[in-house]
């Protein structure tokens, strides 16, 4: 606390700090551009929903088809994010701790879902996981429909969310000091015990960040999902697709309601993540 | 997200063993038995092959399923060319605009202190958490036939939705934060001492930027441009909402792929898709190269 006060006092005043040129120009441009491209367009959804009465809005979002679309979106995104937590932490661990041939190649490939256009991912995953596909054959043979089903949606969302967990956990593992692990081993802890009680707790903030980003991205994802999902109402229709359908039918109130719900869900998720992060940092931080 | 950060330390399990213990002879207390290591590597490889490598291979395999002639026909189709041109033109407009914004935002956020800086910084990230279909929808609410400015545009005979300006707006929104997100941490870490020294020595603003700041951030800036470009060329959801899918006119490459796919012209769809796969691979290679450059500096 004391050092904080000393630091703020030592800081020069706001005015004196602006030795460099271009503050007004860049701040002005940044604010205008941000407003034109993001803030004003996005505010239309909020303003548009104010035009509806509360009961109209409630009637819209309690529509059975909308509820089931959100249920499917949330469930598949959640399962995909949880799956990615397990396999993503494992992948990050292997990439940081072990050496094996082709490691550089695989490390670079992790970013593929960010770089590959979602529509391409969508048609390609559908080709692989449909009934006659390379992997689909195996899934269908054991009775799991891996395309045109909730499983198919989850597969697409696992693809989309894969880099989030790996890329948030990887830097933490790289900076991790093995001293505490050595201490745990010397004190007689088994390797698994060390991982669960010593390493994992340190990874939790990063895992949480990656999980939330993947989860939020999954709820809004459109391109990679619509090809593999089959898009059957009440079964495999996701919220973004239902919004698109409403738009095509010029049902603007319906589309607005879905859009507003989706925005609220993703902002709520990010808010909860920041809150947990903040409390975690206060309890465990230095 | 910096894929190759800490590359030098990556093999730490082997190199950080205490008392010079051998890599193979003695198992370090901070590593697992060889069987466990092999098992974990194996699981990861299966996961990566199933999720990342097979989708890449499938695109090329499907594209060539009916022979190279069908694929070549898909590439030379005039509608495909129109889609390629529109995609390139969109990226050519969107990437420089978002780069100028990124530079401007990073400059005022990292070089100055002012009230609301944290808020501004988080507002820039908003498009990351907005679904692409919403990104398209908001421009329909603004400029569509029934939108707020719809009648005004109509009176002047201007069209934004179902036309290229709409495609550019949707893409601008979706790729908005990429350059800024790369530059802000980088310029934050570099501080302002060098710029301050240059100003003291009498440099003008423009000279300061081109001689001091730009050389310092060039690799980070290029990295941001590469990611922004990949997303701009591949954007599907936002563009799908605003484009209207008019063949040869408002179809970008991803939309062209969708139409071919829905017409059951699978080989043609995958042939066009293979071009985008090449773009993605080029992006990954550039990311890798730029990241190494960035670490050296």
From TrEMBL, chain A:
For the ABC transmembrane type-1 domain, which residue ranges apply?
A: 70-273
Membrane topology category: Multi-pass membrane protein
Q: Which GO terms describe its cellular component?
A: plasma membrane
| Keywords noted in UniProt | Membrane, Sulfate transport, Transmembrane, Transmembrane helix, Transport
Q: Which GO terms describe its molecular function?
A: ABC-type sulfate transporter activity
Membrane-crossing residue ranges in chain numbering: 21-46, 66-96, 108-129, 135-160, 195-216, 252-276
Q: In its keyword annotation, does this UniProt entry include Transmembrane?
A: yes
Q: Which domain of life is it from?
A: Bacteria
Q: Which family does it belong to?
A: Belongs to the binding-protein-dependent transport system permease family. CysTW subfamily.
Q: This chain belongs to which protein, by name? A: Sulfate transport system permease protein CysT
Species, as recorded? Paenibacillus aquistagni
TrEMBL record, chain B:
Segments spanning the bilayer are 39-60, 80-109, 130-149, 161-180, 221-246, 266-290
Please name one Pfam family that this protein belongs to: BPD_transp_1
Residues annotated as domain ABC transmembrane type-1: 84-287
GO cellular component terms?
plasma membrane
The subcellular localization recorded is: Membrane
Q: InterPro entries, per this entry?
A: CysW_permease, MetI-like, MetI-like_sf, Sulph_transpt2
Which keywords fit this entry according to its UniProt record? Membrane, Sulfate transport, Transmembrane, Transmembrane helix, Transport
Transmembrane helix in keyword set: yes
Q: Which GO terms fall under molecular function for this chain's record? A: ABC-type sulfate transporter activity
Gene3D superfamilies named in the record: MetI-like
Membrane topology summary:
Multi-pass membrane protein
Give the matching CDD domains: TM_PBP2
Specify the domain of life of the species encoding this protein.
Bacteria
Coiled-coil annotated residue ranges, if any: none
* Complexes and interactors: The complex is composed of two ATP-binding proteins (CysA), two transmembrane proteins (CysT and CysW) and a solute-binding protein (CysP).
Role description: Part of the ABC transporter complex CysAWTP (TC 3.A.1.6.1) involved in sulfate/thiosulfate import. Probably responsible for the translocation of the substrate across the membrane.
State what protein this is by name: Sulfate transport system permease protein
Q: Which organism is it from?
A: Paenibacillus aquistagni
The upper taxonomy is:
Bacteria, Bacillati, Bacillota, Bacilli, Bacillales
């Amino acid at each position: 606390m004391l050092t904080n006060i000393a630091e703020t006092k030592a800081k020069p005043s706001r005015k004196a700090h602006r030795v460099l040129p271009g503050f007004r120009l860049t701040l002005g441009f940044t604010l205008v551009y941000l407003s034109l491209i993001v803030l004003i367009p996005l505010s239309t959804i909020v303003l548009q929903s104010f035009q509806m009465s509360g009961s109209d809005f409630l009637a819209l979002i309690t529509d059975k088809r909308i509820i089931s679309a959100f249920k499917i979106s949330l469930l598949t995104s959640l399962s995909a994010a949880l799956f990615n937590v397990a396999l993503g932490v494992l992948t990050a661990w292997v990439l940081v701790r072990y050496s094996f041939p082709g490691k550089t190649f695989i490390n670079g490939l992790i970013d593929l879902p960010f770089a590959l256009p979602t529509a391409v991912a969508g048609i390609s995953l559908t080709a692989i996981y449909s009934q006659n596909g390379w992997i689909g054959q195996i899934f269908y043979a054991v009775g799991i429909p891996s395309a045109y089903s909730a499983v198919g949606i989850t597969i697409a969302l696992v693809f989309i969310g894969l880099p989030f967990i790996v890329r948030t956990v990887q830097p933490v593992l790289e900076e991790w000091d093995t001293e505490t692990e050595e201490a745990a081993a010397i004190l007689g802890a088994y390797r698994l015990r060390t991982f669960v009680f010593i390493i994992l707790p340190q990874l939790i903030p990063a895992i949480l960040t990656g999980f939330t980003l993947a989860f939020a991205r999954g709820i809004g994802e459109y391109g990679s999902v619509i090809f593999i999902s089959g898009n059957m109402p009440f079964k495999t229709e996701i919220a973004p697709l239902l919004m698109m359908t409403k738009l095509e039918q010029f049902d603007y109130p319906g589309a607005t309601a879905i859009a507003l719900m989706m925005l609220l869900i993703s902002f709520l998720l990010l808010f909860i993540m920041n809150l947990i992060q903040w409390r975690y940092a206060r309890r465990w931080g230095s | 997200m910096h894929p190759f950060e800490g590359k030098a330390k990556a093999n730490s399990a082997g190199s950080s063993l205490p008392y010079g213990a051998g890599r193979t002879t003695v198992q370090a207390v901070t590593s697992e038995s060889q069987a466990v290591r092999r098992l974990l590597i194996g699981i990861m490889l299966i996961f990566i092959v199933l999720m990342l490598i097979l989708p890449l291979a499938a695109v090329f395999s499907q594209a060539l399923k009916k022979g190279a002639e069908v694929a070549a026909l898909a590439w030379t189709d005039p509608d495909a060319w129109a889609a390629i041109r529109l995609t390139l033109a969109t990226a050519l407009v969107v990437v420089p605009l978002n780069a100028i914004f990124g530079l401007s935002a990073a400059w005022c956020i990292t070089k100055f202190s002012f009230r609301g800086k944290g808020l501004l910084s988080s507002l820039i990230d908003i498009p990351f958490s907005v679904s692409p279909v919403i990104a398209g929808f908001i421009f329909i609410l603004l400029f569509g036939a029934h939108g707020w400015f719809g009648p005004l545009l109509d009176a002047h005979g201007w069209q934004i939705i179902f036309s290229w300006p709409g495609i550019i707006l949707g893409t601008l929104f979706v790729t908005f934060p990429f350059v800024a997100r790369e530059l802000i941490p980088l310029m934050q870490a570099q501080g302002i001492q060098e710029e301050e020294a240059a100003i003291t020595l009498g440099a003008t603003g423009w000279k300061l930027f081109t001689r001091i700041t730009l050389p310092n951030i060039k690799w980070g800036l290029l990295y941001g441009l590469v990611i922004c470009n990949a997303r701009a060329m591949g954007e599907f959801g936002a563009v799908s909402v605003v484009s209207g899918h008019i063949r040869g006119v408002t179809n970008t490459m991803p939309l062209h792929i969708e139409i071919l796919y829905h017409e059951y012209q699978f080989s043609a769809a995958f042939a066009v898709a293979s071009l985008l796969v090449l773009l993605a691979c080029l992006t990954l290679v550039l990311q890798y190269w730029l990241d190494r450059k960035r670490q050296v500096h």
